[in-house]
Design goal:
heterodimer, A: about 80% helix, elongated, B: alpha/beta, 4-stranded antiparallel sheet, 12 helices, 10 strands
Chain lengths: ~230, ~290
């Protein structure tokens, strides 16, 4: 990890700091939305689900702000090397954070539908997936903030476990659908929620890949099988 | 004759499709041969009196490519450029150690005539410098005339060819008798490029060729540089990082007379290996 010394242009430092702050704000909001949506599912709390859906607007606005500020920085300062990578990565991060916000919203909508019917014990199947997705998300953002390429690489490797969990849970839910056709809609909603959590893992992976690019100037996309933490 | 199922199946020549795909995937990428070098600079040091302006620089300058020399003022980049055609010798009390090989020939060998070196290695300066008493046409062919060429047809052909290569012909073809100084700043700089090209050099050195030009004139010179590299090896000094990024294939970063980093421009500007390069190009110097 390299800590950059001070830039000659104070205005550049300020602009870059503002861009990063907005990205961090987006990640905090996306994390809160995901937490609220899942809590709304587990606790059958419609208010939390409604909050999640309402909060998405703020994440969307921030995404546009980050894009606007990023373009302005590219235009005004024409950054190069690590500065360029930081700006490009921040802009790419915001897209993934916005998508995670959308996933949280979708989960909240599905949870509200589930809450209209008697509880399903299979909701518990979502917990390990949620924990895995959330930890990947948090570590992905953390690796970007700390410019920690090793942590980011480790996040990428964890996506496979989440995919496996999703497959296992989906198989179980399909089995339940066959046996209990009366709850078909409920199980289907859970399948979609599982799918959303798996997508959160994918976006966390993208974030981690961008963090590696920002920190180490390496493009590790589409080569997960050959990834190993550098010593 | 009825069509059989076998007729519809394309049989791969060797093995299954997957085997062939795997063979392709597993094949290690062929190593690209090192690009040909016009200059080989070896352990070059240059002194102005007691002051060492260049310290032990070793680098190869790739043929038919643009190499940008960047670095803060006083880092030795102009001295390095001038050492490539012995122009620095025009400054009194200069001394040089090391070797500069042009196509394998040592430019500083005692048998080499500096005038011939400067014909093979042309130079464009920061400020355009057409000869004020000469017309546009005379400015272009003055180098040939000084070398004793008198054939009018040959001179006219070379005049047009050089002006075309400098992307100036269409703008001045009807005004060849007007003074060179009657042109705009950007046109004067292209006139100087045409003058350098008229003697058919192998290399064109440029010392901040656009620093006195407006953005349009700068864009024309940059475009011209990109076109010329198919015929010439170009080395340019620039303070403009964005320009170096736009026009060059290779970039060398100098600091206090030393070559800190040299590599492909995309690598230098996206992922420099040296902290000093990173600090300089991102504006964190000092």
């Amino acid at each position: 990890m390299m800590i950059a010394s001070k830039h000659i242009l104070g205005t550049f430092e300020e602009s870059l700091a503002s861009l990063r702050n907005n990205v961090l704000m987006m990640s905090s909001l996306a994390e809160r939305s995901l937490e609220q949506a899942m809590k709304g599912l587990f606790d059958r709390d419609d208010d939390l689900c409604a909050n999640t859906i309402a909060d998405d607007e703020e994440i969307d606005q921030l995404e546009m702000q980050v894009d606007k500020d990023g373009v302005a920085i590219l235009l005004r300062f024409q950054p190069v090397a690590s500065d360029l990578r930081r700006v490009v990565s921040a802009m790419k991060l915001s897209t993934n954070l916005e998508r995670i916000g959308d996933m949280a919203t979708t989960i909240a909508r599905r949870a509200r539908k589930l809450n209209c019917h008697p509880p399903l014990s299979e909701v518990e199947l979502m917990k390990p997936m949620y924990e895995q997705a959330m930890s990947m998300f948090k570590d992905g953002v953390d690796s970007f903030v700390r410019e920690d390429a090793d942590l980011a690489r480790a996040v990428v490797l964890r996506d496979e476990k989440l995919d496996d969990l999703n497959r296992t849970v989906s198989d179980k839910l399909v089995e339940r659908m066959v046996k209990d056709r009366g709850q078909l809609r409920g199980y289907l909603n859970l399948v979609f929620i599982g799918r959303c959590l798996e997508r959160v893992g994918d976006h966390a992976t993208n974030i981690a890949e961008d963090a590696v690019y920002a920190a180490a100037a390496e493009d590790i996309r589409h080569q997960h099988q050959s990834l190993a933490p550098s010593v | 004759m009825s069509l059989q199922m076998e007729d519809l199946v394309m049989t791969p020549p060797d093995g299954t499709v997957m085997e062939r795909v795997e063979q392709q995937v597993e094949r290690p990428p062929a190593e690209e041969p090192a690009p040909a070098s016009t200059f080989q600079v070896k352990n070059l040091s240059v002194w102005y009196g007691e002051k060492r302006a260049i310290e032990n620089v070793t680098m190869d300058i790739v043929s038919n490519a643009v190499t940008a020399i960047i670095g803060p003022s006083g880092c030795g980049k102009s001295t390095f450029l001038r050492a490539l055609n012995r122009m620095h010798e025009l400054v009194p009390r200069t001394r040089l150690e090391g070797k500069v090989l042009l196509q394998g020939v040592d430019l500083y060998s005692s048998s080499i005539d500096p005038a011939i070196v400067r014909r093979r290695v042309g130079m464009i300066f920061q400020k355009s410098n057409p000869f004020p008493t000469m017309s546009i046409g005379e400015n272009v062919v003055v180098g040939l005339r000084l070398n004793g060429v008198r054939d009018r047809i040959f001179l006219n052909e070379r005049l047009e060819k050089s002006l075309r290569m400098a992307a100036l012909w269409e703008e001045v073809k009807d005004d060849l008798d007007k003074p060179g100084t009657s042109l705009s700043g950007g046109q004067q700089q292209r006139l100087c490029i045409a003058r350098a090209l008229a003697v058919e050099p192998e290399v064109v050195l440029m010392d901040e060729p656009c620093s006195a030009l407006d953005p349009i004139a700068t864009a024309k010179i940059e475009e011209l540089i990109s076109e010329l590299k198919s015929k010439y090896t170009i080395v340019t000094v620039t303070h403009n990082m964005q320009q170096a990024g736009r026009i060059s294939d290779y970039t060398a970063f100098f600091y206090i007379g030393r070559l800190i980093e040299f590599g492909e421009t995309t690598q230098i500007f996206s992922n420099p290996k040296e902290r000093q390069t990173e600090d300089y190009i991102t504006g964190r110097f000092g």
